[in-house]
Amino acid sequence: MNRISAHQCNLNIWHDLPEEVWSKVADIYKAMPGWIGYHNGIPYWFGQEKDEVYIEASVEPSGLSFYAQMTKSDWDSWIERFKSEATQVLGYDVGEPEDGFV
From 69's CA, which of 53, 58, 80, 92 has a CA 20 to 30 Å away? Predict the structure, then answer.
């Protein structure tokens, strides 16, 4: 089943991390498939809200938050790659706090 649906994820990349960490996160953003850049300070991949398929991120007190409109298989692949890249670059296991990642 390849229908477009909404997906959301919060990661243990906290809003109060030092600027040098956020600089690394920005580099990861740019290396991810579908990167199209920032619009009004929000990073986007593949498109924006007006498009059928897109991913956006925001920094929240609960961690780095992603919202996506795409197929589940594409989303699962993309977010797993992001977690893997972030784990390598940041030097700690990146994942969802609900799954025990702190």
Answer: 92
Letter string b/e over residues 50-77, b meaning 16 or more CB atoms within 10 A of that residue's CB:
eeeebbbbebeeebbbbebbbbeebbee
CB-CB contact of 79 with 72 (8 Å): no
Strands (E) in the chain, as ranges, are 5-11, 35-39, 42-45, 54-60, 63-70
Q: What is the pTM of this model?
A: 0.94
Sign of CA dihedral 94, 4, 37, 35: positive
Write the pLDDT tens digit of every residue in 29-42: 999 999 999 999 99
What tokens does 11 get?
Answer: 């990661």
